[in-house]
Every structure is written in structure tokens, then in C-alpha cells.
């Protein structure tokens, strides 16, 4: 029996342990997405929760009887509480997510961090009584966690800034602040340090906290005012995370382990924990809908089968009848972009051995992949095989266009482009020529040719207009392409509201170049010396789903001969209308292309004829299209389905009839193998995509060696994301986001809803309307639900019931609003002694956040109007995406003629339209028009003639920062506020992992003309630094906005903005004419 117990204990698995909560000798932590309990000495842990969602961030009550934690039982993350020994959880918050448990007050209330508050973007703390659910708001702005030392609260200012970045020094770096009852304003605990100090915990009259003072996140202690600072832990390689303090000890995560350290002696040890678990999330899993993870689909040469790459594995599916083949089966290898070389063979890119290479594999799945190229370092998404299978061409992340000879594995670099990676690769029918598009130095794309047999290269088009999407005609006589040469503007002049500018729409035309002189142009009528073409009606329509066609014999095969001399002079225009088009494909008698309009792509076609050429919509709303090698069929992806249709220039009558039946398609994965592969791939993608080949000074191989052993401890996808975060954080670069992919979620998702207002609970159980977001009467669609004309619910009114249910019977009104988003609800409302029922439409969580944010913005504008006395304009840009230009146009043009302007980019999330806004602010009034009546107007139209300032804060990010720095460098005015986020290495967000997760790579660094990197890691430092302090800001203050108004008023007084007085009218009379 003793031996059996020893064997059982030995066999119990180790896990990956996070977020410890400590109370005396009890530890509660997260593993496998659940909460577990174990003694401080370690041993076999006991599971406390078992929901299929995630339960985490446990925190134990001061008396040790209860544990509060975050959970997603109904979908959104909310705070719950349950007995420390386990039991039914009780929900404490109804925020609509996310709400985060951050600890307990000494009097037994749960500290909750939330971002939901009218009139104040950012995070703040609520204290929730677990017995009756009553809440108290801590009156501090930007507080993300807190701890009480006596009657003083020590809190972390700012939440985690989102990017996994070690040694971060940007404006959003977390800092500890403190405020006692006698303090008018909060004070910084360590004002001398610009790194991170966070997560204070009480230890007697001192605090323990996490800080990267020495470059690694460690535990430190200090007096309450930050003096007498001492380091407790010392580690290399991994940060101290998620610490908790109790009884003179601290527990924390280091790597995949939990440690306990004595705070006085600094004696530190690993807590040896094993799990009483079947490790359910590590066993083989079946993916029921692999289309959710599809990364490529290519037809066979005749369209009878489709090569599918999904979740890193390769499959071949019949387009009609036949066997669904799983070609690869190793979850430890990711395959990309499998496509047919011929009917029997596929090529694909795989990371066998840790580096990417090209492989051949049998399409019937009966055999192993064989390597074509060795595992050179570098990213290649996939290759384009030549029709005869002898060559594979591809472009890589280093802007190289390469080709490999399949038989020998010999590589040749065709081109190293200084601007971008060559694209739109296509082979001639005889495999002798490769055509592709490549950026010239002026960044306009050219169509080029390369012959791998002897290395001959030639330009097909010039660099005067961008040309792309080359495609050979089946007979090898013509090379078609699209070119953006239709540059007419549909805006006729700069006159009109909102400064109309030239707008180029439908810029693409289709062209073709004759590869030999004297070719008959198939799109024009024949002359008397030329044979007549077939009439369009003479072409016999091809039968649907024809049997597989045999390939031409070698003596009938097409031979492509190209006379390079005079090539550009032989370009002809295809008689099609101007449009936005790409991806040309040709059959003997038709041209196909993708046409883009209103954000949607459609498959279009036109019959090649000498007259009456009419484009036809073959399929609307497609996601991707590819043509079979025999040019007889098209593989169309629309929505979540694949279809094989005949390559006919006519509408597809019934697309569903042509669908590839994948209803039985499923695949299994080995999570542990897949997690290891994804960790290595995330490391490799960072190496191959990161803008700095030196990896910011890191030994990148060592970084993998340090983190890879821990992947064997991982038991769920969230833990893998945690490990990835540690690894990629070593780059110390922003825009490094880790997003889990295929995580296990709970079966329930109950959509929360709200009334778009702040409600306060009354003693009788009813709820008083405490605040409504301020709305713009010019935009009635932004009015909160309670403020709609028919409802007329005002601040001070009391809501007694919802849909006939008294609010006194539920802990929060949100209980009765679950599942009601966008639906009518009936409210019983009391104003004074009058009671009435009203109908309102409940707001979704997104709508609620939007109302509150707009309310804050409208309050800023109202303040500027009042304090600026109508002389100062205000524009707020919350982001720099294309949709955000609407905010600029809506708010700038009404105030373009004022004396001062505030451009507020606080809380700006970034984007890419900084140049649009800067260009408009750079306009100057250089002349004036004066008619016989009225005031002068100026040219350039809508130029702002007054003084301009830009407002920033710690949450101004990415392109918002680029705008602020550009504004200053271009001499447009001063920047006022706080130092910004510090993220100026741009990214494309394209390096996805096989389960749809990502560890994004920062790809494009930014430097100035003086040769120094800009913004990254530190942020934009304002010309006039002003902090919005926590207590004053919570109380309604906005010191940054006040400073901007004052600065503009000073400048307007010192340099008044006046419209020049027109000179007297000239005397052009006869008497004034010079003799």
C-alpha cells in the first residue's frame, strides 16, 4: 500500500502555475484554467473550480474564509466569490467585462478594477461588499489595483499597457502612488524611477511591490513614502509575476513555478506542486470545423480535387466524389500553402527540423514528404511551382525573389528589392518564363520577366504607373496585366464644404503586351488580311463538370518565345471599362478577374471578342479565387465554403450545387506537440519579421533555449500565451501583442446589456439615475437609451423595476438586462411621487462604452467652448484609422476659422492617417478673395490661420504619437500633456500561428533625418508637461485641457489672429491712366 501511494504521488503531473493567492499556509493558484488549492509546503493540489472557461486571479479574504476571483461563467469576465474550501460561486460584478479582482480591504470588501464609468475613460477601483453587493468607488483616476496600509491606499497608476515588453520605460509604465485621508492629492511612491513599480502589498507599515529597477521584475520593499528601498528577490532569465503577501511571506510566479520567499530573510524556495488531474486539455483533440483554420486552398490541375492546408496540416478533398485524404499527420510540424504540381504530387512549405523548407509529398497520402530545399533561415509563405514542376519561385521577408530547381535543390536569387517583396508570381505555359510585379525605387510596381534557364531579366512596364497581376494567355502569345492609369478625379475643384480634394476611383485598366511583333490583337475586328475570329455566339458552351482532360502531347505543347526588344511598345489596351481590379486569369476564350467595390470582391469575366465586350459578374462576394492548370475550372471561396465552378464567362446559377462537400472533414491534433511547434514558430517569426536583425541586442537563440523547456509544463492554450509573452517580451519592443488562439471557452455566452447610465442603489432596492453621458444634439443617434424623447428619464429619476420585476429582488439591474441587447425593455420610473412606465432599447456593451466615451469627448468640447469664449476650436481623435477621419471632418471644419485650435489625441489608439491630418494643418492662407459684399475668404481653402496645440497623455499610442511628433517637428505648434506610450515600430499583424493566435512582430522602425530612432521605448515628451493627477481628475478636473486653453489664450493675446483688411479698390479710370 505504501508503495502504491508513493507511485501515485510520483506519477502526479506537474503543471504550469500562475497567479498565486497566499493566506497563512494556504496557496490558491491557477492551472489548466481552473483554481487549485495546496499547502505552502507544496504537494498534491486540489481543484476548486472545474468550469470549461477560465478562472484566475484568486485573492483570499483577510479572515481566510473566502476567495474572490475572475471567471467567465457567462462569457464576459466578471468577479465572483466562493468559500476558500470550494463551493458555489457568487457573482459580485455586472460590468459586462472586464472586471478584475485585485485584493481585499482590511474590512473585508473585494477590490475590483473596472473601466466602466461615465465621463472618465480609464480604469478605477470599486470596493464591493461580498455580503450585500453594495459598492463604493475609490475616488482616484487611472487606478488599476490597490492595497491599504492603515488608512492609506497605495495603488498602481495605469493598467498593463497591452504590449508584452520587458524593461519598458514609456509613458504608460505603471507606477505606485499613494493617498491618505489628509492628502489633497495622490503622491508618487518612486518619482525618481521611470521604469515599472506596480502591485503594492501591505507588510506591516511597509509595502512590498514588483519592480524592474535592476532590469528584471523582482520583489522590493520600501517604506510607505518610497524611502528605505530594498530588493528581496534576485533572479535572472524570468520575471517575478503575480505576487501576493501574507504573514511575512510572499508567493509569486517565476517561469512555470510558484515560489515562496521570506520577506525578512529573503530565503526563497520553489513550492513543489503536482496536480490531481487528468490533464484533459493535453489529450488528443478533434477539430470539427477545420475551415475555421484554413490558410490555403488550391485546385488540382483539372479541378477534380482541392489541396487544403488547415491547422498546419495538409489534406486533399474531392471536388465531387472520392476519398478525403489526410496527407500529413504530425502536430509538431506546421505545413503551409500546399498546392499541386501535377495530379499526383503536392509541394508545401514545412518547418521540419525547426526551419522552413520546400517539400514534395504524394497527393494520395501514401508516402512521406521529401525535402527539396535545405532548412535555410528566413520566412517563406509558400511557393509557385512551374507548370512542368521543375521550378518553384517565391518571395521572402528579406525582399528577395528566389527560385529553386526542384531536381537539384539549387537556389537562385532573382532580385533583392529595396522597397518590398516581389509579388503576383506567375509562370508561362511552357515554364520558361516567370512574370511578376516588383516595386521600383519610386514605389510604383512594374511587371518584370525572368527566365531561369539562363537568368535573362526584362521590364515589361515602366515605373511611371503601377502595374501588377501579370497573366499569360493560354497560347503564350500575350502577357496581360492591370495598371493604374485611369487617374481622372471625380472631384472637379477644391470649392465646396469640407475642402474637397481629388479622388481617384476605378483607377485600373487591363492591358496586354504582345510577346512577339505582328501578333493579332484578339480584342479588335479583323482586317481583310486577317482571318475572322469566331463570333461570340459560335462558341459552344462547355458542359458543367467535365471529366478530367488529358494534357497535350509534348509535340503540341505551347512554346513561349519573347522578343524583348520593343516589348513596351507592343502594349495594347483591353476594351474594358475603368475599374478597381486585380488577379487576372485567362482561358482560350475569356478573361477573368477580381473586381473590388464597396469593400467586396466579385469574380468577373469577359469573353474575348472584337466587339460588344461586356463584363459579367460570375460570383459576387468572393474571398479568394484560383484557376486550374488546365484553365477549365475555378476554385472559388465564398464565406466559409469552397466551390469548383466551370471557367465560363457567365453567372453561376447555383453556387451551392458546385460546393465542395467538406461536411465530414475533421482533424485531430496533439496539443502538446502543437504547443511546442507554436512556441518555436513564434520565436522564429519574431526572428524573421522583427525590424532589427540584431534583435535589440538579444542572443535570440539563447532566448529560445531558456523558454522552450517550460513548454512541457503547459497544460492549456492560455498558459502557452503566458510563456510566449515572457519570451517575446525580451525584445523590449512595443507592438508586441500576444493573442491566444484556440482557447477552451465555456458553453454559455449570455450577452449583457445596459441602460447607458450610471445607476446608484437606494436603500429600498431601487436604483437612482446618477449620471447620463453628455450627448451631441447634432447627432441624435448618439443619445443614451434613457434620454430618448419618448422615455425622458433624467438624472435623479429612480428606476423601480424592469419588465415587471422589482429591482429590490435582484442584486443589480444588469441581472434583468442579460440577453436584452438591442431589445425593448419596460422600466417603472419614479420622479418625485409620479410613477410611470417607459419603453427603452437596452444598449449592448459596445454601445454602452461608446456612449460613455462620446460623453467624455462632448464634455471636453463644452469646456473648451465655455473657457475659450467661442474663440477656440476642439477636435478629438480617439484613433488614426480611416473611419476616424470622419471625426476630424465633423469637428474641424466648423471651427476652421477660429483663433485657436486644440487637437486632442489623448487615449488615441493609433492607426495610419497621421499624414492626412498633418497635411491639413500645414495648409497656409497665402492670398484672399474679396467680393463686393461680405468678408474676405482665403486660399488655401479651409487653411487654419490661428494657433494650434496638440494634447497627449500616457495612452496616446502608435500613430497618435507619430502625429504628435510630426506636428512638433513640422513647426505647427507645441505639444502639451504627458509623455506618450512609446510604440513607434509599426507592424502589419500578419504573422499568425496555426491556431489563429499570434505573437505580433514589430516590423518597421521609425527614425528621423538626424539619424536617431524616434519615440520607441520612451514616447513623445511634450513641450509643456502637465499631469492629470488621480484625485483631481476623478473629481472632474482636466489640468491638461485647462493648460491647452491657457496656452492658446496667451498666444492669441500676444499674436492676435486677424483677417487682413482689403486694400482700397484700384483707380483704373481714364483719368488715372498714365500718359
Characterise this structure.
The chain is mainly beta and 1075 residues long. Among the domains are: 2-277, 6 Propeller (Neuraminidase), CATH 2.120.10; 669-739, Transcription Regulator spoIIAA (2-Layer Sandwich), CATH 3.30.750.44; 758-843, PDZ domain (Pdz3 Domain), CATH 2.30.42.10; 848-982 and 1017-1054, 2-enoyl-CoA Hydratase, Chain A, domain 1. 12% of the residues lie in helices and 32% in strands. It contains 11 helices and 69 strands. The strands form 18 sheets. Strands 56, 57, 58, 59, 60 and 61 form a 6-stranded antiparallel sheet that branches. The longest helix is centred in the last third of the chain and has 23 residues, at 845-867. It is globular and about 100 Å long. It starts with a helix and ends in a 21-residue tail after the last helix.
Keywords:
1075 residues, mainly beta, Neuraminidase, Transcription Regulator spoIIAA, Pdz3 Domain, six-stranded antiparallel beta sheet, five-stranded mixed beta sheet, 12% helix, 32% strand, disordered N terminus
Amino acid at each position: 500500500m505504501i508503495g502504491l501511494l508513493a507511485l501515485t504521488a510520483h506519477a502526479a503531473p506537474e503543471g504550469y502555475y500562475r497567479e498565486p493567492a497566499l493566506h497563512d499556509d494556504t496557496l490558491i493558484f491557477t492551472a489548466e484554467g481552473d483554481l487549485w488549492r495546496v499547502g505552502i509546503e507544496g504537494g498534491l493540489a486540489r481543484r476548486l473550480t472545474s468550469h470549461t472557461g477560465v478562472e484566475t486571479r484568486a485573492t483570499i479574504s483577510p479572515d481566510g474564509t473566502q476567495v474572490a476571483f475572475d471567471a467567465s461563467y457567462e462569457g464576459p469576465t466578471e468577479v465572483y466569490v466562493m468559500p476558500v474550501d470550494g463551493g458555489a460561486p457568487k457573482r459580485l460584478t455586472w460590468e459586462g467585462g472586464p472586471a478584475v479582482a485585485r485584493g481585499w480591504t482590511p474590512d473585508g470588501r473585494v477590490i475590483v478594477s473596472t473601466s466602466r464609468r461615465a465621463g472618465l475613460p480609464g480604469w478605477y477601483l470599486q470596493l464591493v461588499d461580498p455580503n450585500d453587493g453594495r459598492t463604493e468607488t475609490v475616488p482616484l483616476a487611472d487606478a488599476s489595483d490597490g492595497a491599504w496600509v492603515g488608512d492609506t491606499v497605495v495603488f498602481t497608476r495605469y493598467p498593463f499597457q497591452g504590449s508584452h515588453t520587458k524593461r519598458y520605460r514609456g509613458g504608460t509604465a505603471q507606477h505606485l502612488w499613494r493617498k491618505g485621508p489628509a492628502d489633497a492629492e495622490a503622491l508618487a511612491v518612486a518619482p525618481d524611477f521611470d521604469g515599472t513599480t506596480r502591485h503594492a502589498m501591505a507588510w506591516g507599515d511597509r509595502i512590498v511591490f514588483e519592480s524592474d529597477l535592476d532590469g528584471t521584475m523582482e520583489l522590493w520593499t520600501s517604506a510607505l513614502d518610497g524611502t528605505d528601498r530594498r530588493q528581496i528577490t534576485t533572479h535572472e532569465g524570468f520575471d517575478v509575476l503575480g505576487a501576493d503577501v501574507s504573514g511575512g511571506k510572499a508567493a509569486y510566479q517565476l517561469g512555470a513555478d510558484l515560489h515562496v520567499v521570506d520577506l525578512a530573510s529573503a530565503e526563497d524556495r520553489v513550492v513543489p506542486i503536482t496536480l490531481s488531474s487528468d490533464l484533459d486539455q493535453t489529450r488528443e483533440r478533434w477539430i470539427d470545423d477545420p475551415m475555421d483554420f484554413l490558410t490555403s486552398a488550391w485546385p488540382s490541375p483539372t479541378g477534380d480535387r482541392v489541396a487544403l492546408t488547415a491547422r498546419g496540416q495538409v489534406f486533399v478533398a474531392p471536388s465531387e466524389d472520392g476519398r478525403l485524404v489526410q496527407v500529413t499527420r504530425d502536430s509538431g510540424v506546421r505545413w503551409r500553402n500546399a498546392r499541386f504540381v501535377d495530379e499526383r504530387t503536392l509541394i508545401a512549405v514545412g518547418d521540419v527540423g525547426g526551419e522552413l523548407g520546400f517539400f514534395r509529398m504524394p497527393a494520395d497520402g501514401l508516402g512521406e514528404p521529401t525535402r527539396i530545399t535545405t532548412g535555410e533561415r528566413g520566412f517563406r509563405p509558400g511557393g509557385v511551382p512551374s507548370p512542368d514542376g521543375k521550378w518553384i519561385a517565391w518571395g521572402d521577408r528579406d525582399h528577395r525573389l528566389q527560385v529553386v530547381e526542384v531536381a537539384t535543390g539549387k537556389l537562385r536569387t532573382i532580385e533583392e528589392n529595396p522597397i518590398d517583396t516581389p509579388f503576383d508570381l506567375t509562370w508561362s505555359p511552357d515554364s520558361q518564363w516567370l512574370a511578376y510585379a516588383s516595386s521600383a525605387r519610386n514605389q510604383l510596381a512594374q511587371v518584370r520577366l525572368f527566365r531561369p534557364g539562363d537568368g535573362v531579366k526584362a521590364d515589361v512596364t515602366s515605373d511611371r504607373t503601377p502595374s501588377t497581376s501579370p497573366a499569360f494567355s493560354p497560347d503564350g502569345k500575350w502577357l496581360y496585366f492591370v495598371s493604374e492609369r485611369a487617374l481622372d478625379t471625380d472631384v472637379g475643384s477644391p470649392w465646396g464644404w469640407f475642402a474637397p480634394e481629388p479622388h481617384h476611383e476605378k483607377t485600373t485598366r487591363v492591358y496586354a503586351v504582345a510577346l512577339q511583333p505582328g501578333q493579332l490583337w484578339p480584342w479588335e475586328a479583323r482586317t481583310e488580311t486577317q482571318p475572322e475570329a469566331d463570333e461570340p455566339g459560335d462558341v459552344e458552351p462547355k458542359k458543367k463538370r467535365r471529366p478530367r482532360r488529358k494534357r497535350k502531347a509534348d509535340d503540341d505543347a505551347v512554346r513561349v518565345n519573347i522578343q524583348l526588344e520593343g516589348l513596351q511598345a507592343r502594349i495594347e489596351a483591353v476594351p474594358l471599362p475603368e475599374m478597381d481590379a486585380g488577379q487576372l486569369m485567362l482561358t482560350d476564350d475569356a478573361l477573368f478577374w477580381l473586381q473590388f467595390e464597396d469593400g467586396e470582391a466579385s469574380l468577373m469575366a469577359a469573353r474575348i471578342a472584337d466587339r460588344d465586350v461586356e463584363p459579367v459578374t460570375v460570383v459576387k462576394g468572393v474571398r479568394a479565387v484560383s484557376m486550374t492548370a488546365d484553365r477549365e475550372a475555378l476554385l472559388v471561396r465564398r464565406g466559409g465554403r469552397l466551390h469548383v465552378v466551370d471557367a465560363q464567362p457567365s453567372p453561376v446559377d447555383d453556387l451551392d450545387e458546385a460546393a465542395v462537400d467538406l461536411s465530414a472533414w475533421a482533424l485531430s491534433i496533439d496539443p502538446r506537440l502543437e504547443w511546442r511547434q507554436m512556441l518555436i514558430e513564434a520565436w522564429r517569426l519574431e526572428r524573421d519579421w522583427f525590424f532589427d536583425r540584431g534583435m535589440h541586442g538579444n542572443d535570440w537563440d539563447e532566448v529560445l533555449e531558456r523558454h522552450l523547456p517550460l513548454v512541457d509544463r503547459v497544460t492549456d492554450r492560455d498558459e502557452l500565451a503566458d510563456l510566449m509573452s515572457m519570451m517575446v517580451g525580451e525584445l523590449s519592443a512595443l507592438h508586441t501583442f500576444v493573442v491566444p488562439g484556440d482557447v477552451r471557452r465555456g458553453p454559455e455566452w449570455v450577452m449583457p446589456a445596459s441602460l447607458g447610465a450610471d445607476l446608484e442603489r437606494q436603500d429600498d432596492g431601487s436604483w437612482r439615475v446618477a449620471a447620463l453621458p453628455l450627448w451631441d444634439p447634432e447627432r441624435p443617434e448618439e443619445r443614451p437609451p434613457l434620454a430618448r424623447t419618448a422615455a425622458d428619464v433624467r438624472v435623479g429619476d429612480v428606476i423601480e423595476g424592469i419588465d415587471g420585476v422589482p429591482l429590490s429582488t435582484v442584486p443589480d439591474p444588469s441581472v434583468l438586462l442579460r440577453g436584452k441587447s438591442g431589445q425593448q425593455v419596460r422600466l417603472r420610473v419614479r420622479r418625485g411621487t409620479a410613477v410611470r412606465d417607459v419603453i427603452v432599447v437596452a444598449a449592448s456593451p459596445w454601445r454602452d462604452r461608446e456612449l460613455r466615451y462620446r460623453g467624455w469627448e462632448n464634455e471636453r468640447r463644452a469646456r473648451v467652448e465655455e473657457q475659450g469664449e467661442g474663440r477656440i476650436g476642439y477636435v478629438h481623435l480617439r484613433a488614426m484609422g480611416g473611419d476616424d477621419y470622419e471625426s476630424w471632418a465633423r469637428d474641424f471644419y466648423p471651427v476652421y476659422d477660429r483663433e485657436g485650435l486644440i487637437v486632442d489625441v489623448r487615449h488615441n489608439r493609433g492607426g495610419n492617417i497621421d499624414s492626412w491630418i498633418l497635411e491639413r494643418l500645414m495648409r497656409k492662407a497665402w492670398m484672399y478673395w474679396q467680393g463686393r459684399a461680405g468678408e474676405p475668404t482665403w486660399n488655401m481653402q479651409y487653411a487654419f490661420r490661428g494657433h494650434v496645440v496638440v494634447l497627449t497623455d500616457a495612452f496616446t499610442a502608435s500613430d497618435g504619437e507619430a502625429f504628435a511628433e510630426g506636428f512638433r517637428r513640422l513647426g505647427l505648434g507645441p505639444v502639451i500633456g504627458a509623455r506618450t506610450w512609446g510604440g513607434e515600430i509599426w507592424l502589419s499583424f500578419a504573422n499568425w500561428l496555426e491556431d489563429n493566435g499570434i505573437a505580433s512582430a514589430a516590423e518597421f522602425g521609425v527614425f528621423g533625418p538626424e539619424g536617431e530612432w524616434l519615440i520607441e521605448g520612451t514616447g513623445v515628451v511634450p513641450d509643456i508637461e502637465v499631469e492629470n493627477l488621480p484625485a483631481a481628475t476623478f473629481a472632474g478636473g482636466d489640468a491638461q485641457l485647462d493648460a491647452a486653453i491657457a496656452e492658446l489664450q496667451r498666444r492669441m493675446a500676444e499674436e492676435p489672429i486677424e483677417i487682413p483688411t482689403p486694400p482700397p479698390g484700384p483707380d483704373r479710370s481714364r483719368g488715372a491712366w498714365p500718359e
